[in-house]
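I have been asked to look over a protein record a colleague put together. Alongside the sequence sits a line of tokens, each denoting a local backbone shape. Please read both lines and tell me whether the tokens look consistent with the sequence. I do not need a full report, just your reasoning and any doubts. I have pasted the whole thing underneath without changing anything.
>
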Amino acid sequence: MQQSSRGNLITLNVHPGLHSKDLSYNFINHEEPSPEQSQIVTTSTGQKGGKRFQCGKKFTKISGLLTKTIIHTGEKPYSCSECGKCFTRKSNLVTHERIHTGEKPYSCSECGKCFARKSHLVKHVRSHTGEKPYSCSECGKCFTDKSGLVTHERIHTGEKPYLCSECGKCFTAKSSLIVHKRSHTGEKLYSCSECGKCFTTKGKLRAHRSKHTDEKPF
């Protein structure tokens, strides 16, 4: 890291040699870089015939510029001390660590249910409000989250990106693949509290429970 004599321009050299970057940032009073400065964000890869691209994105804070640099290089400097998984952002590491600590700092004001991620709370709150902001352009069906819409759209496109390594069967949703794999492993996670019989899916368990309650919902 070098600072010019003017005191308002920082040049960062990352991975000299194979990967090199010249990133300039005008940080006095959080000014945006001049056009000449903002366009010199470049990456060179390889010794011969390397690829070169210009990002040109402007930042008001040096932290944003550094994060963007890491994304370009593929670096993941933040690692979990529990499992070793690495992340490009410290905030992503902090969120991940809650898997190990069990911390759930975001709680629903309606029902008190807690979540590790704020995005999960936002999605959950929609179950109370009935809000479904994501709609399918093909059939108009609406969803509470974008991932649900993406999975649904595969019905129209016929895309099945999740492949079973055992039998080659393909699925539109990852969750469907996980359930399917239990047919190969014999894993049955859902057990009946009445008789102890086990099932591969919640749906099959619910159907079985109706035998004990004499419920006939259909």
Summary: The first helix runs from residue 35 to 38. DSSP finds seven helices and 16 strands in the chain. The two ends are 70 Å apart (CA to CA).
